[in-house]
Amino acid sequence: MLTVTFPAAAFGTNCYVIAPGPGEECLVLDPGIGVEETLREVLTEHRLRPAAVLLSHGHVDHVYSVTPVCGGELAAYIHTDDRYRLEDPLGSSSLGEALVGMLEQQFGTQATWREPERVVEVRDGETLSVAGIDLEVLHAPGHTEGSVMFAVDAVPDGVPDEAQVDRTLLTGDVLFAGSIGRTDLPGGDHEAMLRSLRDVVAPRPDSSLVLPGHGPATTLAREKASNPYLKDVT
């Protein structure tokens, strides 16, 4: 599958564009702060047409551009337990006062939010078939109440054979290369995160390519062998 990754303008959030191939409909995962111009360039270069926006969770650094990307026509998909965050992801009750202060310092007080017109709530174990791609929803709370991962039985074009992967796991802020998402923000729960790592992440096949919400790609085999958080729960 065609997969393009680029960072947002703040917090290094990875925005993913996924499609069966050039000239097709595509999915946009986690359109964060300041991604609109780069996203337009990616869509134009590969002749892609957005079909939906997927959100791994409701933090502002992953959802800030969802409304302009959806444009009133496309649906934004988010887990039921994080649906409330789309009402005000800039609020301190959702993000935490410290991070709200950082946003105001970096972007001034002009940051505004408008809730997307079409929101589809997803649940654990559900299979989404959008833009010619099937994704399994894996609820993995801990970073937020409604954090999810998306599992796809395909890998991005260009992944070398020596990577020994045959499927993809879009992990949001559940699992990073060598680390995990923080659990000290409102709605975070460290014990829930450990359960998610043990019961949701660890059982996934080692042959999974991991595309995280921040930082570089990795593989689940590598994380099971070296990530201290995964090693602790397995």
Automatic annotation (TrEMBL):
Residue spans crossing the bilayer: none
CDD domains named among the record's database cross-references: metallo-hydrolase-like_MBL-fold
Domain of life: Bacteria
Molecular functions per Gene Ontology: hydrolase activity; metal ion binding
Co-factor requirement: Zn(2+)
Gene3D superfamilies: Ribonuclease Z/Hydroxyacylglutathione hydrolase-like
Alphabetical list of SUPFAM superfamilies matching this protein: Metallo-hydrolase/oxidoreductase
InterPro entries in UniProt: MBL_Glyoxalase_II, Metallo-B-lactamas, RibonucZ/Hydroxyglut_hydro
UniProt keyword annotation of Metal-binding present: yes
Metallo-beta-lactamase domain sequence ranges: 12-214
Keyword Ubl conjugation: no
Keywords: Hydrolase, Metal-binding, Zinc
Name this polypeptide is given: Glyoxylase-like metal-dependent hydrolase (Beta-lactamase superfamily II)
Gene source species: Marihabitans asiaticum
